[in-house]
Amino acid sequence: MRRVVRTGTGKGIRRFGAAFALAAMMAASGAAAQDGPPGITRPVVLPPFDRNAPACTRPPGLEKVLAFAQDNERDFMRGVSYGLRRAAEKRGLAYKVELAGNDAGRMVEQLRALLAARTGAVVIAPVDSVASAPRLRELIWSGAYVGTVVPPPAVSLLNAPQYLTGKALGDAAADYIRTRLGGRASVVLLTHDSLEFLAPRFTAMRDALRELPGVTIVADISPVTVDKAGGFAMMQTILLANPDVDVVLGADTVVLGALDAARAAGRARPDQFFGGIDGEPEAVAELKAKGSPYKASVALASPVFGYAMGQHAADWLEGKSIPQAMDILPRTLTAETIAQYERDLVEPDGVYADPRRRDAYLKMYGNICYDTRDRYIAFPWSSEARQP
User: Can you give the three-state secondary structure of 336-351, one letter per residue?
Assistant: First the structure.
């Protein structure tokens, strides 16, 4: 594999890592908030979740309310909310959404209000994880269930095995290059170098392509914005220097923008491999379209994990032991596999009730309950990390 362009900066990565380090240090010293333990601030490897762990005390004095502190209204987060709502209805919890509209200050105020209302369970997709952390710790100390989508602190944290997620897409692209493109391809990687926890995705893609000597990475770069507009603008620039691109990989929303740019330039071909991560509805529609260059999307089924987090919230309020962390496992979607996946998204309760189907999407780690809430996760957990 040859690489022609390698651009981007580690500055954003250092900022993100430094922010987590500062948050952990402040938690350990008690500077960020008071009157509660700092949680587990040093990385540990969690054992598998024990479903037979003994129950403990029900959190006292809390309202049977599940609230979703939602960063924005992108489709992925709507899926989380759909799963949470279905779980709340199933378990007799009131459900509410606090939409921040990408405003970190508004989200902090919403969390304060949830604490004041003695809300029993909060799931959050944070706008600014560092700004939200003190309020989340206060909710944990109050006895509430706090579940987060990726960053700590949380009594139960959701993440994806990022290297495995990137490997699923990289392997699909590599197989297509071998079998359909004769082992030769010009490849574009549209990365997220400013987000430290997503970096392993792109490492895995590079590793998969490295096995093919006929592959040339003509661009390995982060768009200015991680959305369709950013993908469109970056692909326009790339096509000026490299008009015959064969493979484009990245997040669905960015790769969809790149596909629009290729079509606008008259450079889209049915034999190309455009592939992304997230299982966005527009990507799924492209997979179904005859002759589309979009060949694969690696899905992280947000309604399924949203439903699981809603169930864990209800279990917590009943004094049961729940997982400290959970993987959402990647699923590679193609035109042949899409139908069953779409059925699962509509009925996440059926997936959760069937151990075989549930375990294909979710893997759970550690145990925690109200009595052991001082052991909440306060470091950026990943199942792929190893204890130092």
Answer: CCHHHHHHHHHCHHHH
